[in-house]
Design brief:
Layout lengths: L1 H14 L1 H7 L15 E2 L19 E2 L3 E11 L7 E6 L7 E5 L4 E7 L7 E4 L5 H4 L6 E2 L15 E2 L1 E6 L6 E7 L5 H6 L3 E7 L1 H4 L9 E9 L30 E2 L2 E4 L2 E2 L2 E6 L1 E8 L6 E6 L4 E6 L2 E9 L2 E3 L4 E7 L8 E6 L8 E10 L22 E11 L2 E6 L11 E3 L4 E8 L3 E5 L4 E6 L14 E4 L4 E7 L5 E7 L2 H5 L3 E6 L1
Parallel strand pairs: 1-14, 2-5, 3-6, 5-12, 8-9, 13-18, 17-25, 26-29, 28-35
Antiparallel strand pairs: 3-4, 6-10, 7-11, 11-12, 13-15, 15-16, 18-23, 19-22, 19-24, 20-21, 20-23, 24-25, 26-27, 29-33, 30-32, 30-34, 31-33, 34-35
This protein binds CU-O-CU linkage and copper (II) ion (CU) (2 copies).
Pfam families: Cu-oxidase, Cu-oxidase_2, Cu-oxidase_3
Protein name: Multicopper oxidase CueO
EC number: 1.16.3.4
Length: about 500
């Protein structure tokens, strides 16, 4: 099926060749907002005034056996309207799964959606059969495959994902990963948080309970009927992958959602709060800052706690990245409104979330100068280079790694478990590069040291236009077949993915 569908995709792009050539102008900055790779799709429906809708908290699921039902639901996103989402348990974002290091958990996904799905735990140290290989389709309940031969490991109605959770505490997330259709599926709502906790974190006096707030940040556009407007070529999201060529750089929305609500507002104590930030957008990057300016104290990255906190004025967050930060609302008088803004945005896309500091409160929390032990990876002799760029494979347009579109049967990196390699990522436009199975450490950006927000264990790194980023990566425990790819989901769906083999 993959070969067929790949051919289908490339054929469509070729047919649209004239417009595709024009769309390339976006990357040159003609209709692309600064700091973004992508173009804005404007909503046809009126959007609410910012900071009128309360900030929701996703539901929480715990235990060692968890069932998630993927289903269609009508939810209120724009006040007074209903939007149809594809949700884990019918919610957007899905429930937050909470687990503990060393306590294996099985998540059973049941697919009641009209299309096949693939659940992936992003940041999970997961055996290959549970990782969400893009062709391991979970077919909808009651559906039997129409093709005689499909290459992946098919499941019918339900699939059990086994997560050993032999990894440190971290902010992970789960989302759909179906070959060629990840962008539209995530856009429709298939994303949620998955937190791993451990004793190291428990022992720290960090803000907790109501003062630990998960923030799933993304952007969406709405059509005249208040439905998500995604410019998919095939609205059934089953056969022809890809988006209208105009959005091939990336689909940017004009409505910012936090935990599924448009520009929400939250009432908080005048005290320290821990914010777990996830950029769940398909393509939009955020540069987050507080107004009035409050220091953003970063305590963790994709792969859990840093060794020591790092203070930022603003924080760039690319699609797929997580930042664990502490902000102290005790530094402003009660009654202050503190707004989290996006310095890369203008108008509505500059606004994100508002905190109303409504009451004085006792605060026993602190951010210690030492947070955790972070082993420093020491690279061995193996070096590889991955060039992420717009591609023409034959006469077709798409996105490639080392000049090649995704080939599930091939391998672009044969690695040995336990060995630390140096991987170099090079780009044309922005590409947030994500590696499955194990996190990495940033060694250098353009030959200089890591950037201010590159610290700790990362699994997604924002590689900016024309940059060269070197990382040290070491795979452990599980032999098999994984992927690494660009986390701009339009790029990913348009072939910017590579197979990594571990043995
Ligand atoms: Cu967040 Cu391969 O994905
Ligand atoms: Cu992942
Ligand atoms: Cu990309």
């Amino acid at each position: 099926m993959n070969r067929l569908s790949r051919r289908g995709f490339l054929g469509v792009l070729a047919a649209a060749g004239g417009t595709a050539a024009l769309a390339g102008c976006g990357a040159l900055g003609i209709d692309t907002p600064p700091g973004q790779t992508g173009d804005v799709l404007r909503s046809a429906h009126p959007l609410p005034a910012p900071y009128t809708v309360p900030l929701p908290r996703p539901a929480t699921r715990t235990g060692t056996e968890i069932e998630i039902v993927q289903r269609v639901a009508d939810v209120e996103i724009l006040p007074g309207t209903r939007t149809t989402v594809w949700g884990y348990d019918g919610t957007f974002p899905g429930p937050t799964i909470e687990t503990r290091t060393g306590r294996p958990v099985t998540v059973r996904h049941r697919n009641e959606l009209p299309v096949p799905t693939v659940a992936h735990l992003h940041g999970g140290h997961t055996p290959p059969e549970s990782d969400g290989w893009p062709l391991d389709l979970l077919l909808p309940v009651g559906e039997t495959p129409s093709h005689a031969h499909m290459p992946g490991d098919l499941a019918y109605g339900t699939r059990d994902h086994h997560y050993p959770q032999n990894q440190r505490a971290a902010t992970l997330w789960y989302h759909d990963h179906r070959m060629d259709f990840t962008g539209p599926a995530v856009y429709k709502g298939l994303a949620g948080l998955h937190l791993v906790r451990d004793e190291v974190e428990d022992a720290l006096p960090l803000p907790r309970g109501d003062r630990e707030i998960p923030l799933v940040v993304c952007d969406r556009s709405f059509d005249a009927d208040a439905q998500f407007a995604y410019p998919a070529l095939d609205r059934s999201l089953r056969r022809v992958p890809g988006v209208d060529p105009e959005w091939m750089e990336g689909v940017l929305g004009d409505c910012i959602l936090v935990n599924g609500a448009p520009w929400p507002v939250a009432e908080v104590d005048a005290a320290r709060h821990r914010l777990r930030l996830l950029n769940a957008a398909n393509a939009r990057r955020f540069s987050l800052a507080f107004e009035p300016a409050l220091p953003i104290v970063q305590i963790g990255s994709d792969g859990g706690l840093l060794a020591a906190p790092v203070t930022h004025r603003s924080l760039d967050v690319a699609p797929g990245e997580r930042f664990d930060v502490v902000v102290d609302f005790g530094q402003v008088p009660v009654g202050t409104e503190v707004t989290l803004v996006n310095l890369l945005g203008t108008g509505g896309t500059r606004e994100v979330l508002r905190f109303r500091v409504v009451r004085a409160a006792r605060d026993d929390s602190a951010v210690p100068a030492r947070l955790s032990e972070v082993e420093t990876l020491v690279p061995g002799p193996v070096r590889r280079e991955f060039v992420f760029r717009r591609g023409t494979t034959g006469d077709h347009r798409g996105w490639t790694i080392n000049g090649r579109p995704f080939d599930p049967d091939g391998s672009q990196a044969d690695t040995r478990l336990g060995e630390t390699e140096v991987w170099r990522f090079r780009t044309d436009v922005h590409h947030p590069v994500h590696v499955h199975l194990d996190p990495f450490q940033v060694l250098a950006r353009n030959g200089a040291g890591p950037g201010p927000s590159d610290g700790g264990w990362k699994d997604t790194v924002d590689v900016r236009p024309g940059e060269i980023v070197d990382v040290a990566v070491r795979f452990t425990d599980y032999a098999g077949r994984y992927v690494m790819h660009c986390h701009n989901l339009e790029h990913e769906d348009m072939a910017m993915m590579a197979t990594v083999r571990t043995r």
